[in-house]
């Protein structure tokens, strides 16, 4: 595959800036078709982004002979359906996070891709951002010594709910999202812990819906022991007071620590008592570094930057924290 000609299934908010424009900015990559069930919105997206074709039917886009790769960017409830259809057509798939509604669906997707020998990558794109590449480099070179544990807190007030630009806020509807804001945000964080520390050995967690304002969990906790006996503890809460909101993860080692926000652009590095703050320029299209790696993988020129196994393991931990298995 010399040229990757993309078709997007679900050209909604996430594709406006974060991902969509990047497909035309990566070498040997072009966005040639988009799909949304609302034909008017699909046509509007295609016009604004200079895309040649638009569809209101996903199978029609998949069947387009000029499209040779599929980006599934719908809400999680249809990830499996569309990914399986694309795999059946023999077209490699880049699927948004979370990979599926639950770990069972994720395994089904991964197994089918392997059975059909079709390439599948998961959009855990933060692992390719400069901030997290620097963190991985510092850990891999033992700059802070041997890692002991990581502590994460993502706290938001109920007033900070992410609102999807649809008829309802699907992000807090478990029937569409698989859960609540935890399912929307935690895949980034849990995947990065796996990326940094390797596979999980032991894990446990708990979840609660305290306000009963909707069906989604508002408080989730999780503890993981990784293969090198590194302990991770995470707390996600979406109903604290606004002054208590925070996004902070600290990784402690035998010589120092790394502190950062998952949704920020700075890193505090402490080694032997001396602290330095590193700032990183925001990436205009946050998925572009990952998309570049995926294009290389689909073209046979590089490794898979985030394989199905990573998506499956992330959902396995999430489901366990939320007592789904």
Summarize the topology.
Elements (H helix, E strand, L loop, with lengths): L3 E6 L3 H4 L12 E7 L3 H11 L3 E3 L2 H6 L5 E4 L6 H10 L4 E3 L7 H14 L3 E3 L7 H11 L6 E9 L18 H4 L3 H17 L2 E9 L10 E8 L4 E7 L8 E8 L2 E5 L5 E6 L2 E6 L8 H11 L9 H14 L4
Parallel strand pairs: 1-2, 1-4, 2-3, 4-5, 5-6, 7-10
Antiparallel strand pairs: 7-11, 8-9, 9-10, 11-12, 12-13, 13-14
Helix pairs in contact: 4-5, 5-10, 8-10
Short summary of the structure?
The chain is an alpha/beta fold. It has helices at 13-16, 39-49, 58-63, 79-88, 103-116, 130-140, 174-177, 181-197, 288-298, 308-321, and strands at residues 4-9, 29-35, 53-55, 69-72, 93-95, 120-122, 147-155, 200-208, 219-226, 231-237, 246-253, 256-260, 266-271, 274-279. The longest helix is centred in the middle third of the chain and has 17 residues, at 181-197.
Q: Can you identify the CATH superfamily of the largest domain?
A: Dihydrodipicolinate Reductase, domain 2
Number of domains: 2
Q: Let me know the average pLDDT.
A: 94
Name the helix and strand elements from N-terminus to C-terminus, one letter apiece. EHEHEHEHEHEHEHHEEEEEEEHH
Question: What would you call the structural class?
Answer: alpha/beta
DSSP strand (E) fraction? Answer: 25-35%
Q: Provide the low-confidence segments as ranges.
A: none
Question: Shape, please?
Answer: globular
Structural Rg: 20 Å
- In the CATH scheme, the class of the largest domain would be Alpha Beta
The strand order across the widest sheet is 8-9-10-7-11-12-13-14
- Give the % helix: 25-40%
């Amino acid at each position: 595959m010399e040229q990757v000609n993309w078709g997007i299934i679900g050209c909604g908010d996430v594709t406006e800036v974060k991902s969509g424009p990047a497909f035309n900015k990566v070498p040997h990559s072009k966005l040639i078709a988009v799909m949304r069930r609302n034909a008017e919105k699909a046509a509007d997206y295609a016009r604004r982004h200079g895309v040649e074709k638009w569809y209101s039917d996903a199978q029609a886009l998949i069947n387009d002979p000029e499209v040779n790769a599929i980006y599934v960017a719908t809400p999680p409830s249809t990830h499996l359906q569309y990914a399986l259809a694309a795999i059946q057509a023999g077209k490699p798939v880049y699927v948004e996070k979370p990979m599926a509604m639950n770990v069972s669906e994720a395994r089904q997707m991964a197994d089918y891709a392997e059975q059909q020998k079709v390439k599948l990558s998961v959009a855990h794109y933060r692992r390719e951002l400069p901030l997290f590449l620097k963190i991985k480099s510092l850990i891999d070179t033992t700059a802070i010594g041997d890692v002991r544990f990581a502590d994460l807190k993502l706290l938001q007030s109920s007033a900070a709910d992410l609102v999807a630009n649809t008829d309802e806020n699907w992000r807090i509807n478990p029937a569409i999202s698989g859960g609540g804001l935890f399912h929307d945000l935690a895949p980034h964080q849990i995947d990065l812990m796996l990326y940094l520390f390797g596979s999980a050995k032991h894990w446990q967690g708990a979840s609660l819906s305290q306000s009963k304002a909707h069906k989604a969990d508002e408080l989730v906790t999780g503890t993981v022991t990784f293969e090198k006996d590194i302990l991770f503890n995470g707390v996600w809460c979406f109903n604290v007071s606004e002054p208590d909101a925070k996004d902070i993860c600290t990784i402690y080692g035998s010589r120092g620590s790394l502190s950062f926000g998952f949704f920020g652009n700075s890193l505090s590095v402490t080694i032997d008592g001396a602290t330095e703050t590193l700032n990183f320029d925001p990436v205009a299209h946050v998925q572009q570094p990952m998309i570049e790696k995926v294009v290389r993988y689909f073209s046979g020129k590089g490794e898979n930057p985030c394989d199905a196994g990573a998506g499956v393991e992330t959902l396995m931990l999430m489901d366990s924290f939320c007592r789904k298995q």
